[in-house]
Amino acid sequence: MRIGLFATCLGDTLFPDAVRSTAVLLTRLGHEVVFPPEQTCCGQMHINTGYQREPVPLVRNFAEQFGDATIDAVVMPSGSCAGSVRHQHAIVADRYGDAALRAGVAAVAAKTYELSELLVDVLGVIGVGAYFPHRVTYHPTCHSLRMLRVGDRPLRLLRAVESIDLVELPGADSCCGFGGTFALKNAETSTAMLHDKLAGIATTGAEVCTAGDSSCLMHIGGGLSRIRSGTRTLHLARILAATRATPDVLTEAASV
């Protein structure tokens, strides 16, 4: 399968390892990964903040970059960006676009997936050959849980990882408090929600908290580091890309 990889803004600027791991994983599974070089932000942050006309150029560019008929599927290591492409782009195109944009958006949305969806539903794999000998807990992010409804797909993938010690996160389906600009506009509420999430993580004794969105992991990771919990955050893609031959840096450090 020829798969178009969307990096996302956070992946491009702050968490390139999540994007790189997605490419490594899919290539290892025998697929061709292509990276349209003119891709830009998908426009999610504009839309979420109430600016629906402004991201029209971004939505149009996304449809053009990934609308290539030779690209069988589009994947991104982000439930929130996948949710924006699948649901919000149509809203923008319907309100402020033209017929060509509406058609392009619909075509790309139909083949766009968050990583766990692509692996389980499209590629039909659960065991991806991953090896990660650490205690891990999983946080289901709001967009993946409520907008995309990925359900237990990430957990099914994690359970199939060799040597992993996967522990359930109490209150897993509660928001971590990030929500993009919500964390800035409602800092006190966001911090209180984060406190509850950190308390749940603490009860697991996990070395790693993983999720499918770098944005939530950034928020949770910041809280964990400030309280010096000893738990680190790691994107799901990095765990799934790790093998015995090419372990993640966390495993490499532990073996030194």
TrEMBL record:
<dbReference type="Pfam" id="PF02754">
    <property type="entry name" value="CCG"/>
</dbReference>
<feature type="domain" description="Cysteine-rich">
    <location>
        <begin position="136"/>
        <end position="220"/>
    </location>
</feature>
<protein>
    <submittedName>
        <fullName>(Fe-S)-binding protein</fullName>
    </submittedName>
</protein>
<feature type="domain" description="Cysteine-rich">
    <location>
        <begin position="4"/>
        <end position="85"/>
    </location>
</feature>
<dbReference type="InterPro" id="IPR004017">
    <property type="entry name" value="Cys_rich_dom"/>
</dbReference>
